[in-house]
């Protein structure tokens, strides 16, 4: 028996409805993607404009310079000749502006404090006050200014035997035009710089290679030698990619983009040497309160360099300040990200004893970095020493002996492995 023909409309309508549904579905998700993307762009742009205020920084500094309040070797280039150029923004905190740029034919990093330096208040966000550049007062003699510098340094690093030499160096920096005289604007700029942790550390480590060179300054804006490779390891991606990459994948990617192991060993030795230099060094002890990879970098020769020294603070000042810090639990006794003490609940005040020494925090930062790709003949010993280092606690005299022993053993092991190679 012949079958009756099936009318095409029976199929046509459902197919049409299905196609229309798919079209609307794709249209909806397309608009949703546009909306979400636009929102992300808006949020990131708003964040960028809030963080990156280089124009405001330049205007503030140059206004003070033109009024004769401040002076320095970089002032004319920044405010008159336009040969000091602020380029890409790397600012992470609104009150501390950081830019890559150039000064004439030199690659540089320009740092500017829209507000004054932290008064060593505890907490992740120290309170700051607007810089007024009113110290020293008018009529201050050079000898009086030297005394002010000496007392300021003494309060921060303690009564060191060679503190007078450090004060003399500060005075030498203050004479920016090298005419043998220090003007009031030069003195006020130098005093403002002296309040910054990074500037102080550059003075203390002047004979070492760990800190980039100070190229010039104007007020508390200062120009540093650019470190070509930073952070210590990993890859810097555009923010749009950062939003979508899972944290686990991001960590693995950071490990992919690292130097060869001999180069990593050399860089690691540099970090250990920095720990050695700031632990009971020539000018007292400093505490490393941010030992994350973003605070460090290296140059073409794989020499270790400090990128951000704002949270490397003199131990004397840290202890004096934290003693006054009110607390309800241990979380209230944190400076930066890595300097943690405990809370005395009977007094609701923070204690002065750091939970972990600098070396333990440095080894923690190096663990994944230097163990990845390590030669098999030193892997077991290196891993053993690193974990012993990470376990260090306390600051007693006995701990200092153990601290020095572990530090020397680690440096010796790494150096012995690379000393015969061209990478050393």
How would you summarize the topology of this molecule?
Layout: H1 9-51, H2 54-66, H3 75-81, E1 84-89, E2 96-103, E3 106-113, H4 142-157, H5 163-174, H6 184-194, H7 197-204, E4 214-218, E5 221-225, H8 239-244, H9 247-256, H10 261-278, E6 286-288, E7 296-298, E8 304-306, E9 312-314, H11 315-322, E10 334-335, E11 339-340, E12 343-344, E13 349-350, H12 358-371, H13 376-390, H14 397-418
Antiparallel strand pairs: 1-2, 2-3, 3-5, 4-5, 6-9, 7-8, 10-11, 12-13
Helix pairs in contact: 4-5, 5-6, 10-12, 10-14, 12-13, 13-14
What structural keywords apply?
single chain; 424 residues; five-stranded antiparallel β-sheet; two-stranded antiparallel ribbon; 14 helices; 13 strands; globular
Task: Quickly describe the structure.
48% of the residues lie in helices and 12% in strands.
Describe this structure in words.
By secondary structure, this protein is an alpha+beta fold. The protein has 14 helices and 13 strands. It has helices spanning 9-51, 54-66, 75-81, 142-157, 163-174, 184-194, 197-204, 239-244, 247-256, 261-278, 315-322, 358-371, 376-390, 397-418, and strands at residues 84-89, 96-103, 106-113, 214-218, 221-225, 286-288, 296-298, 304-306, 312-314, 334-335, 339-340, 343-344, 349-350. The protein has a five-stranded antiparallel sheet with strand order 1-2-3-5-4. Strands 6-9 form a two-stranded antiparallel sheet. A two-stranded antiparallel ribbon has the order 7-8. Strand 12 and strand 13 (349-350) form a beta hairpin. The longest helix has 43 residues, at 9-51. The protein is globular and about 90 Å long.
């Amino acid at each position: 028996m012949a079958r009756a023909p099936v009318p095409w409309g029976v199929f046509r309508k459902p197919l049409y409805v299905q196609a229309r549904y798919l079209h609307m579905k794709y249209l909806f998700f397309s608009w949703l993607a546009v909306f979400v993307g636009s929102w992300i762009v808006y949020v990131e742009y708003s964040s960028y404009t809030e963080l990156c205020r280089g124009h405001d920084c330049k205007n503030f500094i140059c206004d003070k310079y033109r009024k004769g309040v401040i002076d320095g070797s970089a002032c004319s280039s920044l405010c008159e000749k336009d040969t000091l150029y602020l380029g890409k923004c790397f600012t992470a905190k609104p009150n501390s502006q950081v830019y890559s740029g150039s000064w004439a034919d030199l690659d540089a990093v320009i740092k500017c404090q829209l507000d004054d330096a932290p008064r060593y208040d505890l907490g992740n966000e120290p309170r700051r006050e607007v810089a007024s550049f009113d110290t020293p007062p008018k009529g201050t003699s050079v000898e009086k200014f030297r005394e002010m510098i000496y007392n300021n340094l003494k309060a921060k690093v303690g009564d060191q035997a060679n503190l007078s030499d450090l004060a003399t160096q500060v005075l030498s920096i203050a004479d920016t035009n090298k005419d043998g005289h220090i003007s009031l604007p030069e003195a006020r700029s130098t005093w403002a710089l002296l309040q910054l942790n990074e500037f102080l550390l550059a003075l203390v480590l002047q004979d070492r290679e760990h800190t980039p060179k100070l190229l010039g300054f104007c007020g508390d804006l200062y120009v540093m030698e650019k470190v070509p490779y930073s952070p210590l390891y990993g890859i810097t991606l555009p923010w749009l990619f950062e939003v979508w990459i899972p944290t686990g994948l991001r960590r693995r990617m950071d490990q992919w983009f690292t130097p060869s192991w001999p180069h990593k060993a050399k860089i690691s030795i540099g970090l250990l040497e920095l720990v050695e230099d700031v632990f009971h060094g020539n000018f007292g002890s400093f505490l490393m309160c941010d030992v994350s990879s973003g605070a460090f970098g290296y140059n073409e020769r794989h020499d270790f360099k400090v990128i951000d020294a704002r949270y490397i603070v003199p131990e004397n000042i840290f202890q004096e300040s934290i003693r006054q810090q009110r607390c309800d639990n241990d979380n209230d006794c944190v400076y930066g990200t890595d300097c943690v003490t405990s809370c005395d609940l009977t007094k609701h005040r923070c204690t002065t004893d750091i939970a972990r020494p600098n070396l333990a925090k440095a080894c923690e930062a190096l663990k994944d970095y230097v163990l990845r790709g390590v030669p098999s003949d030193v892997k077991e010993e290196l891993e053993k020493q690193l974990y012993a280092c990470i376990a260090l606690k306390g600051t007693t005299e006995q701990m200092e002996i153990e601290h020095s022993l572990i530090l020397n053993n680690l440096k010796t092991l790494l150096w012995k492995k690379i000393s015969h190679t061209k990478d050393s």
